[in-house]
Specification:
Blueprint: E1 17-19, E2 27-29, H1 30-43, H2 50-59, H3 68-82, H4 89-93, E3 99-103, E4 106-110, E5 115-118, H5 125-138, E6 149-153, E7 159-163, E8 173-177, H6 186-191, H7 197-208, E9 213-217, H8 223-231, E10 240-244, E11 256-260, H9 274-281, E12 288-291, H10 298-306, E13 314-318, H11 325-335, H12 340-350, E14 353-359, E15 365-375, E16 382-389, E17 393-394, H13 398-407, E18 421-422, E19 426-427
Parallel strand pairs: 9-13, 9-14, 10-11, 10-12, 12-13
Antiparallel strand pairs: 1-2, 3-4, 3-8, 4-5, 6-7, 7-8, 14-15, 15-16, 16-17, 18-19
Helix pairs in contact: 2-3, 9-10, 10-12
Length: 428
């Protein structure tokens, strides 16, 4: 018997049961009811708009006996499953959430203080699989048994990675990194404790002096956030050309040109790599060339550009410490076919400053060190010299960094006293 009547005070959840208002004489799992509506919409090729979903729910046999509140609850669930992020939608809409991870049916959330378990999102693994496949399809990617993993970017900028069984043994596994359009200013980062005013002045001077720099750190340390804040200090007359794998950098600047790489399609054609885009960017008259994240052979083209008059460039790089940066650059250079000695010959005149970030176990992100990249006296390796360190301020290479800033016509920041920053001129 499929005729149903539900008390409007009842709030069915995934896996729950629809019951009669009279005490349960007629019961039916809500999953069955939802699946019938979904199947009928698919067979009839109904576009899953909110109004069409609600109309389909009301047209289902027995739905006329349900309360209006229940019909809308069922419609909301279907809308979430068919055109939204399902049970993950409220989490992704939370401004505090940075990552949402799904292991089978378990959901974990990071709100900046480490991962915490969330509850009540999915009824079974098949629901997670459907969500993963739909999200992948919305990004133009294929996710099925023949192609069991996907890395894509959703329309709102959220980064999606998904793995299906049997590759994911206890899967499906979903990893969603949310995209926030907010760009933090230097003052806001100071207020958050990312760095102190003295470090902010030094960083702003580096930008004003057009010294090429690289922001380093581990995953989730805030490299993109800090890079965006620093580049937003660039003079308004400058043209910034940004190259990224995933569009994450949002700069508070009036002249930004953004390029994004593209994966190949199912036929294996149409790929556009970061290396391709760096070469194209050089023909676009950039005042500053920015690579969102160096992870491959594009480092060779970036270093080449910074060696041929394209000053003020910047990038981010995964590294556990500033001392690891030369080895990381070597590894990426080898991917581009550049020998170790030749790569170090490119590094010294190209990249001069490392801005290193860290993240504590409680989720706090902060500037750890500002370092100078210098050449070994034998010109065969690159050495990392600390100019500023959290907690102590000025370090051994502080004079060397200030000389770099001064040589480019910018006044280095004063250790104390009143000051104001003028873009392109430094501290006045």
């Amino acid at each position: 018997m499929s005729a149903l009547m539900l008390d409007e005070r009842t709030k069915p959840a995934s896996g729950g049961r629809l019951v009669t208002a009279g005490g349960g004489a007629v019961t039916l799992p809500i999953d069955d009811f939802v699946e019938r509506v979904r199947l009928r919409m698919t067979v009839n090729s109904v576009e899953p708009t909110p109004s069409a979903v609600l109309a389909s729910v009301r047209a289902e046999p027995g739905a006329a006996l349900l309360g209006e509140g229940t019909l809308r609850q069922v419609a909301d669930r279907l809308i979430g499953e068919m055109i939204g992020a399902g049970g993950l939608a409220p989490l992704l809409a939370d401004p505090a959430v940075t990552d949402v991870l799904v292991n089978g049916i378990e959901v974990w959330v990071d709100r900046g203080g480490g991962l915490r378990r969330a509850t009540g999102q999915f009824g079974d693994a098949s629901e997670v699989r459907r969500l993963a496949q739909r999200l992948a399809a919305s990004a133009g990617r294929r996710l099925d048994d023949a192609s069991p993993f996907v890395d894509a970017q959703l329309a709102d900028g959220t980064r999606l990675h998904a793995v299906l069984p049997p590759i994911g043994r206890e899967g499906p596994y979903l990893s969603l990194r949310t995209f926030r359009r907010q760009t933090f200013t230097m003052d806001e980062l100071i207020a958050r404790g990312t760095f102190d005013p003295g470090a902010a002045r030094l960083l702003a001077s580096i930008v004003a002096a057009r010294i090429p720099f690289i922001v380093t750190g581990g995953t989730g340390t805030g490299k993109t956030t800090v890079l965006a804040a620093l580049l937003s200090l660039s003079p308004p007359a400058e043209r910034l050309v940004v190259v990224e794998d995933a569009a994450e950098l949002r700069l508070a600047h009036p002249h930004v040109v953004a390029l994004q790489s593209r994966l190949s399609n199912v036929e294996g054609a149409g790929e556009v790599t970061l290396r391709d885009l760096v070469r194209q960017a050089l023909r676009m008259r950039p005042d500053r060339l920015v690579v969102g994240e160096c992870r491959g052979a594009e480092i060779v083209d970036l270093l080449g550009a910074l060696n041929t008059g394209h000053e003020g460039g910047a990038a981010t790089l995964h590294a556990n410490s500033p001392a690891d940066v030369p080895a990381r650059l070597e590894a990426l250079g080898l991917l581009g076919g550049v020998p170790r000695a030749a790569l170090h010959a490119l590094i010294h005149p190209a990249l001069r400053v490392v801005v290193h970030l860290q993240r504590d176990s409680d989720g706090t992100r902060y500037l750890s060190e500002i370092c100078v990249l210098d050449a070994h006296p034998e010109q065969r390796t690159t050495v990392v010299l600390t100019a500023w360190r959290r907690g102590t301020g000025r370090a051994a290479a502080a004079d060397q960094l200030e000389m770099l800033i001064d040589d480019r016509g910018v006044t280095p920041p004063r250790p104390s006293g009143p000051w104001r920053f003028v873009p392109g001129k430094g501290w006045q």
